[in-house]
Specification:
223 residues, Thrombin, subunit H, 8-stranded antiparallel β-sheet, 6-stranded antiparallel barrel
């Protein structure tokens, strides 16, 4: 029988709301091209592009569409522009089945960028979906709304997503999901969806297929 324990710690992660920099799990607010606010999500994993040294963030596609802009909040609660969505799946047609990812180009030279997961540390490797399915590991996620939560792998509904046990809410979408194991931490995906019933059975968009797709544009994981 699979382990059904769920861990959650929100205390100490309130700072993700206005940390004033781009880092995995930090809150960002999305504005459309007309300057209207659309919603709030959590930054996911950092990416770099070979030969350009540009930095990007991999987050959930349902958080914004191409052309939308992402802003962080400073300690004084003022907004600072962080970057622009340059690619996005948008809202998946089949939630929990189809791809759900977006890439934000972090093109503001004045915003601080940190690949370290706040309160957790570096996550320097990547776990592919086949390995996750085979080992059924403990997985953790971080988001500004609910803080840190961990639980064990459940299943893989499609080649693009997996489910694991955790506690999350609106606003945590797009945040980092990683394998927490005895041999280290490995990026696994970004938070994607959650049901109203069986609400601790949460889904993530797997990072492996996304990195494979983005490799044609010379993107690679930066942790």
């Amino acid at each position: 029988m699979r382990n059904t324990e769920v861990y959650r710690q929100s205390q100490g992660f309130e700072r993700l709301v206005n940390l004033g920099k781009v880092a995995p799990g930090v809150k960002y607010t999305v504005f459309d091209q007309a300057g209207r606010p659309k919603g709030e999500c959590s930054f996911g994993w950092m990416l770099r592009q070979q030969n350009t040294n540009r930095v990007f963030n991999l987050t959930a596609g349902h958080c914004g569409v191409t052309g939308d802009r992402a802003f962080v909040r400073l300690a004084n609660n003022q907004f600072m522009y962080a970057g622009q969505f340059i690619s996005s799946t948008g809202m998946p047609n089949r939630i929990g089945v189809d791809a759900d990812f977006a890439v934000i180009f972090l093109d503001n030279p004045n915003v601080q960028i940190d690949p370290t997961v706040p309160g957790v540390g570096r996550v320097q490797g990547v776990a592919g979906l086949p390995a996750i399915d085979r080992t059924e590991p403990k997985l953790c996620r971080l988001g500004w709304r609910s803080g840190l939560s961990c639980g064990y792998y459940i299943d893989t509904p499609s080649p693009l997503v997996f489910r694991f046990r955790n506690i999350s809410d609106h606003g945590d979408s797009g945040g980092p999901v990683w394998v927490e194991g005895p041999n280290g931490r490995y990026a696994a995906g970004v938070l994607s969806f959650g049901p109203k019933v069986n609400a601790t059975q949460i889904g993530a968009a797997a990072i492996g297929p996304v990195l494979e797709y983005l490799s044609q544009y010379n993107f690679y994981y930066w942790g």
